[in-house]
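Our preliminary data section would be incomplete without showing what the modeling component actually yields. Below, a chain of 383 amino acids is followed by its predicted structure, encoded as tokens that our downstream tools consume directly.
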Amino acid sequence: MGRIDIKKLMQNKRLFWTAVAFPFPFLLGLVAFLVGASSTTSIALVSIGAILVILPSVLISFFEYREIKDAEDKFPHFLSDLSQSASSGMTLPQAIEVASQGDYGKLTKYVKQLNIWLSWNQTFPKAWGRFTNRLKRSVLIRRINAIILEAFHSGGDIKKTLGSLSANVTLIKDMESERKSIMQQQIIIMYVIFFVFIAVIVALYKILSPILYIQQIGAFSGISVQSSGAPLTIEYFRNLFFLMTLVEAICAGMIAGYISEERLVAGVKHVLVMVSASVFLFFVFIFPSALSVEISVFPNQVSLDSDIQISGSAFIEGGPASGATVTLIEPNGNTINLYTDNVGEFRYGWEPPQEPGDYQIRITVEYEREVYHYSSLVTVLEP
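Predicted structure:
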């Protein structure tokens, strides 16, 4: 009691290895965040990593599903050939031997294997049962094969049964094709809704960006956007919108697949298109938020007892990077910490060493985990 059936667990190796690998994207995102990556980058790594872990298993299931659908499409032709051969006086195993020389797309390998089993003197019920088991993912083929096997056992007119089943399956597939063509309009609507959703997200982000920057510098006190007492940042909304778009892409893609073929796995192709479009559009319109810094060191040549004026400005998303940390590293290794003001600017009068020579100063500007590095060479002239 309570023991794990390892054999049963390993029967679905694909699911097992997906479950084993699934935590790694989260560890990667955590490590990236701890080493200094922005939360946006970390979330993007986790999201894309999780998709890449799940993707192989989902793609395999999708290709298996497409193979079964192709086998279903060719199955009426296979039944029709069996019916014609049976009408000419052949037994069912003989009809299958003739059919194994034909081309039925993805169904062909299953028919050839069925003929091989019969050539090994396996009984028809046993070989037909194995044939059905290999195509067990298709409910339609399972039901049709059960009827054929029952007709074989009862000793009825097998050729009429095969002909009737072939006509019925053909009718079913034609109705599915007609329904699919009608549902294409619904799928187009799903895509339109999805891209409208992305457009709204991008527009909302572009509208929120300047408002939050104005609030941050305290110049627009009438607007207060807070969560649990803490002000929300551009990075927070960037992450939120990215996750919302991924969820929308996955849900809309799966729904589109279910609408078209009544199978969630059929939505994989739609999910791939929507997720790819989401990532591309986010990296084009939202994620590029590099810290823009301008620094001036003047003059770069001074006499003894003279100061050097260091000034600069920092911007991000077109707005001032207020409160950014500015670190000035002197030639002797000492550090001086400054902060940008409400308009993203900083100034400092630096006193260079009192000995003639060339000296290098380094300046680092950091804002919301984005870092900008700058260095300049200054010369202290001899008297």
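Confidence is low (pLDDT under 50) at residues 1-11, 219-230. The domain at 292-380 is CATH 2.60.40.1930 (Immunoglobulin-like). Preliminary results of this kind motivate Aim 1 of the renewal.
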